[in-house]
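Incident log, structure service

09:12 report received: a user says their structure output differs between two submissions of the same chain.
09:20 pulled the input from the user's history:
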Amino acid sequence: KFYQGEALAINPEKRTVTVGKAVLDRFKREHRKLDLSVLGEKFTLPYDALVVGVGAVPNTFGIPGVDENTFFLKEARDGKLIRGRIHDCFEAASYPMEDEDKASVDARKALLTFCVVGGGPTGCEFAVLFLAELTDFINQDVGRAYPNAFSGSTHLWPRVILLEASGELLGAFDTSLRSYALRKLHKSGNCEVRLGAAVERVEPGVVVLKGGEKIRCGLVVWSTGVGPRKFVSEGMKWATRANGRIEVDDRLQLVDPEAKGRIFAIGDCAHVTGSIYPAIAQVAEQQGNYLAKALNTKGIPD
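09:34 re-ran on a clean worker, output below:
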């Protein structure tokens, strides 16, 4: 059975989940999400085994301007929004300029500067693939659709700036892999990697670094890891560890005794004890396949 609703709380003793009835309001669309209008009514679902796979939300670290002025890399619709923004930037950069003075050229250059914040697996992968797709886009479409963006003395080539607050990319990975990622980015095209570049705030069209440096850009993609959803941080606080993720063993069962051996967690919301698995789709998919097979073959724990 499928119910469209919002999970509100778990009662491990009674083996129930409290759910708020909800409907999707398709007329209220925000920058990155759809409004979920809870009707106010609740119902309770019993369970024999419960799998928590609510994912996570982008971690903004409370930095001002991130929610309002950046694009996240978390869900499928984020990709469409980013693509639309890229087209908007090329469109704006293609407008004719009455005076090709330095200020006008700098404004066009800023529109074609794309910042990626976060040097983890998702940020690095996006930067490499983005540069490849951007090159194809420019070679095949831009010259025809936006000829003014690359004409005359204002000829510019888009660039990508990858900002990482720490001193290295892919901090949780092996040194050789970190070195390979850095070489790959440098060879991918017009990409500048800035290590030790911590963001202080994000303004419309500007990333402000700690120390005061300002980077003008047309797009900011925020990929600095994930944080817990409200359901986990508040409704399952008893089962979480310091980073807000649900602690599970190598069988994906919650280690907290309150779970009574009947609750499992997978994906970005879970942390396997003693592991360093990154919060990426491949890990979540493998965990889902493993747990589905285990429950189907071994059954529900006693």
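09:41 both user submissions now match this output. Likely a transient worker issue. Closing.
09:42 reviewer note: The two ends are 23 Å apart (CA to CA). The mean pLDDT is 86.
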